[in-house]
Specification:
heterodimer; A: 584 residues; alpha+beta; Aminopeptidase; Immunoglobulin-like; eight-stranded mixed β-sheet; five-stranded antiparallel β-sheet; 23 strands; 26% strand; B: 554 residues; six-stranded mixed β-sheet; four-stranded antiparallel β-sheet; 11 helices; 20 strands; disordered N terminus; zinc (chain A); Peptidase_M14 (chain A); signal (chain A)
Chain lengths: 584, 554
């Protein structure tokens, strides 16, 4: 079994899987020729080149659970601020073992409401696992050993707002709890206005002899700054909107605004230190639901959250003040996983949040790592690399690539052409610019491939959560009717049952190794079995407690039993490593 | 309630144990007694106060809130008085209740008090951790500080696996002393009942282990390290949260009680200052300004102006209460005091209200403090004070027991009875209540008041009028804290015009937003308006009040 899995992983890393956008249509089986790595005949067909609102996501979840009752079950995570039901897909082989006693992998997306594709990536993962179980040996074994907890969107209210109300590619980002952003005592009273009624908030520009912008000679959609000695012809007036509350400012109090990813209870800081923080850790109900869900599932050993944009595989710490929270041992695990991600996801770089991106307190990944000892990544989805399969040019040309990609591959579908509008404050202006579904969100044809690659990374992460094996039990007669029993328990994967940060603060309880014999006289956790060095445990000697079973490592324990033929049934019970038993 | 007390007494008599006078010491309120007392207050003063709940505890007890000055409560500048944040400090609960009762009584007869309740709101939380304080009234009394949320205090994966045991069956958890050559404790030379640490550096010998009353159930070499409960209210807030420490909780605001308290306060924009009746004391002695604490991005000390206000208020506290010898206690991680300042943005103060006065050794004593360095020992001082004030039932005399963890060793159970240091005879709290009310009355006098003064209109050519006004803080304290200007949760001072239909604002912002205005300070505002008739100038702040003045444009 081990060999097969290993082979598969190498294969996945070495091959560049050729997938493209495969929409499975209702055709007869003999008309379809199977593409490698894609489910042959999925019970639930989903188009992976489009996006789904919250109801759409829940509909797919429901269908998956219905089609695969032994693989997919739905669990309610909680209710959002706006009363939407947050759903987790709990995916495992329910016929093999208790889902709560297998190492768990948690995946969510869309915490920032405009960063939509995380939900589809998470959902693709659920779909892929369920639909591949039958035909793919690796996936089958994986679901026998692990449990996936997948919450496609953890900001459903604002996801729907992003899709169904006028927005930019960058809004709302927040959740939908109304808030006074400009300190005038009114909430959300000056939101952007969809002046041209196209469902997008684009830009306003005005022809002006004093403007400092000109039309780009290479692309008529685009404005570029005039040269220092050149006369301009346009001025940019900001995002589409009017001064709704007459305070001389436009769009200064949009829906929200707070940042749900500054709300998590690890080194949380208030809004004047960390912009975007709400009232206190987990004061945002959607996050509090997720937190409660995670605490209800202490077997979660790995976690992944999906954001956009930029092509990054991020680990913490989010803030420099937290560098001690990430130890050398734990970072070795992160590095192994992160480097694997770089290999299989082109255009994505493995990075550290505070060093390589920006400093942020109260982020989700810091809570998972710091408070729960869970190895966690956040991926910033959609890399500009994917546009022309090259690293982006710096500066001005970088911006041009977005226009060129839209023109050459999307046939200008992502742009609202500039059109005149009579603005109450600015007079005759033009409105236009990129649509909200462009630049941050994947264009349809790139969605499935990138979802697959990111999914493969989380599958690798899940695969590397602890796999505990009770390797051997040796006995030795001690005389006086006593028998010594020595057992080795190995962890055959990369991730330890307790991160070193976890061990330091005793976050999760120790792992229990139990000999199911009622006549255990003494129990010893061995440090060196050859030299008989170890520590005796006086309390419950039959159930020994070990602080950790290291990744790719082992622990040895010893019992002295008042019996000539002890019952050699051994149970290992680890919160993050699962429960395994073996009888010798 | 009386019934259950009786039952306990009866039970004690039947089991042949003497109570050494504990019965007198049951007079601090249980949850049901507290509830009954609040209901009585509510029904006696229906026009002055209301009794509400902000939420329920894990066992379904209400977390009560008294609102004094009930009319228009949410639109008047407010003070918060929070008691029972440290559940062993029952005196704070009683103090908050006595203050409430005296204040309401006074409001019936004194104009100044009635006036206070007309212009200000006082939110009183008499007991913020009722699940923990209830241990005082339970059959087995021990000083519990955690609520009813089950917690694995020693983080070993077992919950409540090492509780206290009432080994001498007196209904109280006290201490055990074990004769042991490795023990670091010895009986005090001043009062041999009290165990003090031997000073090895001075050649002193110990001879006793000192442990809490119970058995080491899980054989980990620690006694009673994981009893029933819980999260400590005063450790569960978000500033400097003590992660992974006993009583802190899974994360800041993880508890029903703390979350309900914070949610209520965040909604209460009118709260000007929070007064915690709790362990820390920054009223007898103010917190000092330290530039190094405020020059990092995470601010850990009072801002300069706020430190000056703390000092001003502290002077007032000492002058009005005349309280002496306050124990010095620093703020601690996760406490309410620091949260209310750093994360809620309000002025935040704390005092235990009552503490054990210094009781010097009798004058005729031949002892010198050099011979007996333990003179200042807290327990010895307490026992001298208790004796001088005829407080009974403070000490359980050491009596030998058989202890399974110490076979063949002499083990005795005894020591100070639980809660005795935090439950003075109630009559001793009466003067403390009066002193604190005096302080609060004086404090309210200093609170900010917005007034619009020197309002002027000037004709400008073309039918325009320039309106100029000064907004004065006619109180002694600032309109809000300096830290309040940094956080979004404190409303800045708003000044705006109320225009009629045919009047238009030609120049000047629709709304002036101002940072904190110091006591006696003012800001000047002006607008250019077109039109005629009455125009209202409105200055408002939830923490400093609202004033509107009208001018006529001709």
């Amino acid at each position: 079994m081990k060999n097969t899995l290993k082979k598969f992983c190498t294969a996945a890393a070495a091959f560049s899987l050729f997938l493209g956008s495969s929409v499975v249509l209702a055709q007869t089986a003999n008309q379809v020729f199977r593409a490698a790595g894609t489910p042959q005949s999925p019970k639930v067909t989903v188009s992976w080149n489009r996006y789904y609102d919250h109801a759409g996501i829940n509909e797919i979840c429901r269908k998956l659970a219905e089609a695969h009752p032994d693989l997919v079950k739905l669990e309610t995570v909680g209710e959002s601020f706006g009363g939407r039901r947050m759903i987790a897909l709990v995916i495992t082989d329910y016929k093999t073992g208790d889902p709560n006693k297998k190492p768990g992998m948690y995946i969510d997306g869309n915490i920032h409401s405009n960063e939509i594709q995380g939900a589809e990536f998470a959902l693709y993962t659920a779909w892929y696992l369920a639909e591949s179980f039958q035909d793919n040996k690796f996936i089958k074994e994986l679901l026998q050993q692990k449990t996936f907890y997948i919450v496609p969107t953890i900001n459903p209210d604002a996801r729907d707002h992003f899709m169904h109300s006028a927005n930019t590619a960058h809004s709302p980002r927040s959740g939908m709890i109304p808030l006074d952003d400009d300190g005038d005592g009114l909430v959300d009273e000056d939101q952007p206005d969809d002046l041209n009624n196209d469902g997008h908030i684009t830009f306003m520009r005005r022809k002006s002899a004093n403007g400092r912008y000109i039309i780009d000679p290479h692309n008529p959609f685009r404005l570029i700054p005039a040269k220092p000695d050149q006369a301009g012809e346009y001025e940019i007036l900001g995002y589409e909107g009017i001064d709704n509350d007459g305070d001389g400012k436009i769009n200064e109090d949009p829906p929200g605004y707070y940042d749900p990813n500054r709300d998590w209870a690890w080194n949380w800081q208030p809004d004047y230190v960390q912009r975007g923080a709400y009232k206190y850790p987990f004061s945002i109900p959607e996050n509090r639901n997720v937190k409660d869900f995670v605490l209800r599932h202490p077997n979660i050993a790995g976690a992944q959250s999906y954001h956009n944009y930029g092509g990054m595989v991020l680990r913490g710490p989010g803030a420099e003040e937290d560098t001690n929270t990430y130890t050398r041992e734990d970072n070795q695990v992160y590095d192994q996983l992160g480097n694997y991600a770089e290999t299989i996801i082109p255009g994505y770089d493995y990075m550290v949040v505070y060093k390589d991106l920006y400093s942020a307190f109260g982020g989700e990944l810091d809570w998972f790592h710091g408070a729960r000892g869970v190895f966690t990544f956040s991926n910033e989805l959609m890399s500009p690399y994917l546009q022309f399969h090259r690293r982006q040019a710096p500066g001005q040309d970088r911006d041009l690539e977005f226009y060129e990609f839209d023109k050459m591959l999307l046939f200008s579908d992502a742009f609202v052409e500039w059109a005149p509008f009579d603005h109450p404050a600015y007079g005759p202006i033009e409105i236009g610019g990129f649509k909200k579904n462009y630049s941050r969100a994947h264009p349809g044809f790139l969605l499935e491939e990138d979802a697959h690659r990111n999914m493969a990374f989380t599958v690798y992460h899940a695969y590397q959560t602890p796999n505990l094996v009770i390797q051997d039990a040796t006995t030795r007669k001690l005389g006086n009717g006593l028998t010594e029993v020595t057992v080795t328990v190995a962890n055959t994967r990369l991730i330890p049952t307790h991160s070193s940060h976890d061990i330091k603060y005793k976050i999760e309880r120790p792992d229990y190794i139990t000999l199911k014999d009622k006549d255990v006289v003494a129990g010893i956790v061995l440090e060196n079995s050859d030299l008989n060095l170890g520590k005796e445990q006086k309390y419950t000697p039959h159930r020994l407690e070990v602080p950790n079973i290291p990744g790719m490592g082992f622990v040895k324990v010893r019992w002295i039993v008042k019996s000539a033929n002890p019952n050699l049934e051994v149970e290992v019970d680890s919160r993050k490593g699962g429960v395994v038993t073996r009888r010798f | 309630m009386r019934k259950s007390t009786k039952a306990i007494l009866l039970g004690a008599m039947l089991s042949g144990l003497s109570f050494n006078g504990w019965a007198q010491h049951r007079d601090y309120p249980s949850y049901s007694q507290l509830t009954a007392r609040l209901m009585k207050i509510g029904s006696r003063y229906p026009n002055l106060c209301s009794v509400n709940t902000i939420g329920k505890t894990a066992t379904g007890k209400e977390v009560w809130l008294l609102t004094l000055g009930r009319d228009n409560a949410e639109n008047k500048p407010a003070l918060v008085i929070a008691a029972g944040v440290e559940a062993t400090q029952l005196a704070t609960v009683e103090l908050s209740l006595q203050m409430t009762e005296q204040l309401l009584q006074a409001a019936m007869v004194q104009d100044s008090v009635r006036q206070l309740l007309q212009t200000k709101t006082i939110y009183i939380f008499p007991n913020l951790n009722p699940d923990a304080t209830e241990q005082y009234s339970e059959k087995l009394r021990w000083e519990r500080s955690g609520n009813a949320q089950p917690m694995d205090d020693d983080r070993d994966g077992r919950i409540f696996e090492d509780p206290f045991e009432d080994l001498n069956r007196d209904g109280l958890i006290t201490m055990m002393r074990v004769k042991d050559p490795t023990g670091p404790y010895r009986p005090s030379k001043l009062d041999p009942r009290v165990m003090v640490k031997a000073d090895a550096a001075k050649g002193e010998k110990g001879g006793y282990l000192l442990l809490t009353e119970g058995i080491d159930n899980d054989k980990d070499g620690k006694w009673n390290e994981d009893p029933e409960g819980g999260v400590v209210f005063n450790k569960n807030f978000s500033f400097d949260f003590p992660y992974f420490q006993v009583g802190a909780g899974e994360h800041p605001m993880s508890e029903r009680e703390t979350k309900a308290f914070a949610d209520f306060l965040f909604d209460a924009k009118n709260v000007y200052a929070v007064f915690v009746l709790g362990p820390t004391n920054n009223l007898s002695e103010p917190l000092k300004f330290d530039r190094s604490n405020v020059s990092k991005r995470i601010i850990t000390g009072l801002l300069e102006k706020d430190a000056a206000v703390n000092s001003q208020v502290s002077k007032l506290y000492n002058a009005t209460t005349q309280l002496k010898d306050a124990p010095k206690t620093q703020p601690t991680g996760g406490d309410v005091l620091q949260w209310a300042y750093f994360h809620y943005g309000r002025y935040s103060y704390s005092t235990p209200g009552w503490w054990i006065p210094k009781q010097p050794l009798p004058k005729d004593s031949t002892y010198t403090s050099q011979t007996y360095p333990e003179e200042d020992h807290e327990d010895l001082n307490f026992l001298r004070w208790a004796k001088a004030n005829n407080v009974v039932g403070t000490f359980v005399n050491w009596t030998p027991i058989q202890h399974p963890d110490f076979p063949g060793q002499t083990v005795e159970v005894g020591g100070l009875a639980p809660y005795v240091k935090q439950t003075p005879p109630k009559h001793l709290l009466e003067p403390v209540t009066r002193q604190h009310l005096k302080f609060f009355m004086a404090y309210a006098e200093l609170m900010p008041r917005l007034e619009i003064v020197n309002i002027k209109t000037e004709k400008v050519t073309g039918g325009l009028t320039r309106i100029t006004a000064e907004v004065l803080n006619n109180g002694s304290l600032p309109t809000h804290s300096e830290i309040g200007d940094r956080t979004r949760w404190v409303q800045k001072v708003k000044v705006n015009l109320r225009l009629e239909k045919d009047q238009t604002l030609v120049s000047g912002p629709k709304m002036h937003l101002h940072n904190a205005i110091a006591g006696g300070d003012k800001v000047t505002v002006s607008w250019l308006v077109k039109g005629k008739g009455y125009v209202g100038v409105v200055a408002s702040s939830p923490t400093a009040g609202t004033q509107t003045k009208e001018v006529v444009l001709r």
